[in-house]
Amino acid sequence: MNPLLRIRERIGAVIGTSIFSLLCGITGVVLVVFVAAGQSRQARQIETAPVLDASSFAALAPGDFAVVSGTLTDNTPVTGEFVAFETQRWDVTYDSEDDEYDGDWQTVNEQWPALIIAVDGGTVRTVTATSVNFDGSPREVRDESTTGRMVDGVREDTVRTIGFYNGDLITVTGDVASTGDLIPDRVFAGDRVQLVDDIRQGARVARGIGIALLIGAPLLFVMGIIGAILGRVG
């Protein structure tokens, strides 16, 4: 092989390895410093927020952050028994790079009307929202497709509706509106303790992946340099 060509290949390998290592390091920093830390702060904010009953919620000022746990009650269902829901379709695409099919739930419809939540001493109402973040294990109803490709145990174009019925325990976080109602930012299927645990679990996962990337980035860089010098890369 032409010596100059070999040198170019080794330089290209070093540059490629350096860029990839840098991206891994940057991703690790983002996960540890921003994602995991942000989730930890959010968990502490929710955990330390006062436990609210109807009267203490009514005493909050517009713009105050609030965490409300209670049972959905006297809400008018908007589809089936769901009083708030998101409908998703299982979308299958072909990944030519990996030569395989991937599946992903795509939102096709969601409705978050004003909700009534029963708490100690009365009720708390939320305002209508176009979209909210919701977690936990909400109710799920599926309309299984009979045609299409099966990916990850789900057939293409299967539709599922996930959300809440009257009687479900939920925890809602958000700010108080000028009307005195709650602007929902997050709706969790469960109580406050479960919500905090869920957020902290996400923080632990993000932190673990971030630390692994930060440790792996310099090792990958060194291995790439050594491989290029020895002529084993390229």
Describe the structure.
The protein has 234 residues and is of the alpha+beta class. The protein has one domain. 38% of the residues lie in helices and 32% in strands. It contains 3 helices and 12 strands, in the order H-H-E-E-E-E-E-E-E-E-E-E-E-E-H. It has a 6-stranded mixed sheet. Helix 1 packs antiparallel against helix 3. The protein is flat, with a radius of gyration of 25 Å.
What topology, given as strand order, has the largest sheet? 5-4-1-11-12-6
Class by alpha and beta content: alpha+beta
> Helix tally?
3
Percentage of β-strand residues: 25-35%
Uncertain segments: none
**Ends apart, CA distance between termini:** 13 Å
Outline type: flat
What is the strand tally? 12
Largest sheet: 6 strands, mixed
- Mean pLDDT value: 92
How many domains? The number is: 1
Order of helices and strands: HHEEEEEEEEEEEEH
User: Over the alpha carbons, how many angstroms does the gyration radius reach?
Assistant: 25 Å
Helix content estimate: 25-40%
SSE layout:
Layout: H1 3-48, H2 54-58, E1 65-72, E2 84-95, E3 100-111, E4 116-119, E5 122-125, E6 133-136, E7 139-143, E8 150-151, E9 154-155, E10 159-164, E11 169-176, E12 182-189, H3 192-230
Parallel strand pairs: 6-12
Antiparallel strand pairs: 1-4, 1-11, 2-3, 2-10, 4-5, 7-10, 8-9, 11-12
